[in-house]
Design a protein that fits this description.
The complex is a heterotrimer of chains A (266), B (240) and C (219). Chain A contains 9 helices and 12 strands. Chain A is an alpha/beta fold. In chain A, the strands form 3 sheets. Chain A has a 6-stranded mixed beta sheet, sandwiched between helices. Chain A has a 4-stranded antiparallel beta sheet with strand order 2-1-4-5. Chain A has a two-stranded antiparallel sheet with strand order 6-7. Chain B is 74% helix and 0% strand. Chain B has a single domain, classed as MetI-like (MetI-like fold). Chain C has 219 residues and is mostly helical. Chain C has a single domain, classed as MetI-like fold. In chain C, helix 4 packs across helix 6. The longest helix of chain C is centred in the N-terminal third of the chain and has 41 residues. Classes of the chains: A alpha/beta (266), B mainly alpha (240), C mainly alpha (219). Chains in contact: A-B, B-C. The interface between B and C is large, with 51 and 58 residues. Chain A: This is Amino acid ABC transporter ATP-binding protein. Chain A: It is a peripheral membrane protein. Chain A: It is found in: Cell membrane.
Amino acid sequence: MTATLALKVEGLTKQFRGTTALDSVYLEIQPGEIVALIGPSGCGKSTFLRCLTWLEQPDDGFIEVAGQPFGRERIGAVVRRQSGREIDRIRPRIGLVFQQLNLWPHLTALENIVRPQIVVLKRPREEATRRARDLLARLGLADRAERYPHSLSGGQKQRVAIARALAMDPALMLFDEPTSALDPELVGEVLAVLRQLAEAGTTMLVVTHEIGFAANVADRIAFMDHGRIVEEGPARQLIDAPRDPRLKGFLDLVLSHRDGPAPPLA
Amino acid sequence: MRFDPWMLLDYWELLLQGTWLTIRITVMALVLGYLLGIGVALLGMARSRTLRAIAGTYVEVLRNIPFIIILFLVYYGLPFSGVRMPALFAGTLALSLFVSAYYSEIVRAAILALPRGQFESARAIGMSPAQAMWNVVAPQVLRTIIPPSTNMTLTMMKESAVLSSITVPELTYQGLVIQGNTFAPFEVFAAITLIYWMIAIVIAETSRRLEARVGLAQRQSVTRNPIADRYLSLERRPAR
Amino acid sequence: MKFNFEYLLSVMPRLIDASLVNIRLALIIMALSVLLGTGLTILRAAKLPVVNEVIAVVISFVRGTPLLIQIFIAYYVLPSVGLDMRPEVAGVAAIAFNSMIFVSETLRGGLATIDPGQIEASTALGLPPRAIWYKVVLPQLFRRVIPVLINEATIVVKGTALLSVITVVEVLRTAQQISAASYRPFETLLGAALIFLVMNLVISLVGKFAEARYAVSRA
């Protein structure tokens, strides 16, 4: 394959006071691919996302976003840490949707999406506004543009957060547990939005414990445990025929805790 | 004793000058104190432990010493070290130092109260620390600091009366001058009190408008059982 | 002139002696203001017509005007209406009056945090209002407002320095007397500042202990 990878992670490592949160993680994502990252809580999924966005500085390893080194680069045999300014310049290429969304409550839904385009990408306001309205319309929020976050429902807030990240034209979208902060009845709504994005060809890495979503929408699943990606492969195959005993145990646990029967994996 | 407020009319000029100076001193100390306060607040959140300790000591020392002693130290103490300064300058500086300790705590508390995710989401999308501060943190902090800053500014405005003791001709000083001429303490202090009161009302009203403009003035009213209200509320219920 | 540390040390004994005046006055003021502030709060809770309106005006007056002016009023005005008071008494009266208002406002804030269910239950049990105040409301209220009262105590201690302007011979006045004779204002004022710093840090420390203790007994 000659196409540039959307994301390439090599040997990403992070320690907190002696405990290893990430233990040399490798991951590659093709453009348009949807990868679900699953694993028990505390396995390092969140740290992985925080290191991918350099909110947390990884101790070692390399990240490449759409072919661009991010955070650290190799020049010959020398490893150079990028400056804060360089890191800031690449950051919008990764759209992170936080678990807690972190919309800015003092700005309207529209302005939440417009402001970073103007500040970070230096887009003219008209263009940024057009782009924001476009995205809001696509996500079914055209009539909510002037609302402030506190007057939006949980699902609407999440779509605003997604639009905010998409407006930056990221090469890759990261989702941190997109369903966990929501009421159970909204989970379907969110999954529908993620499916919609998938159909539009958005590259996504989704940290989730929704095995249903992982199985139905994701192309590939990566299973993380103790800071390592233990097993990865095509979604259906990984769920139907897990090889690693830890993944087996995890799947048994998750599937048995679901209400009612698991959705058909057709 | 007779009460003769009309004789104050002979001194209206002094009262006006004093009022105007008190207002100017308050505004100056508000601006200077806030600049200092923001600096100390940021220092207090620095990574370096030494810097944090310096900020902490600054705040504790200024908050635990009576303002009148801070004032004397600046006015009598600094000339002693070679810096000679006029009373008005020394007074305004002392007032700014005094109030900056409180402002810095207000700013620091407001920033710390903001969820970390607010700053992080701005950083993750590519804003620099300064851009994140300006676009995301500052506007939200501004809302929460207005009410406590207003209280502190009122306190500081009142504290400026102490500047009379180093002969700054502000409102209280002019009052004491008039009192020395007329030996009519009741009239003089009634007038001075009234003027301070009016300045305080103007400050409070300005702040209220500012707060409304910045948005967010929602107060939830507590509805309680009238029996409990007999003890727990001091306001009479509005007639319905 | 250079900073003279020896001189600073030499004035400390006199300043420490004088600090006893500040401590004594602050204790009297705090006792008065807590007592009267509580009384005022109960009076306000009675919600009598006119009385509350008058109190509201007085509160607005006290909060809106400088403590220094209130001290001057007690010192200059009260004697002229026949109440001849020593400077010390006038000063204590002024600061206590001021502080009383702040205590009452603090208690008002604390009242809002008390669980109304208890009052309803006490009333249903037929407890007389007196008992509800003394046995139910006030004990909880004071526990809650202790940090604020401690803070008020440090404000009162600082306030006693203002009494130097009406000739009460306390720490600051003593420092001024010393420096008038020696022409070394910086060291003496610094000594006075240190004394206030220590007094207030001790109060804050005691407050922290008290708070911790009550927090434990509440749990």
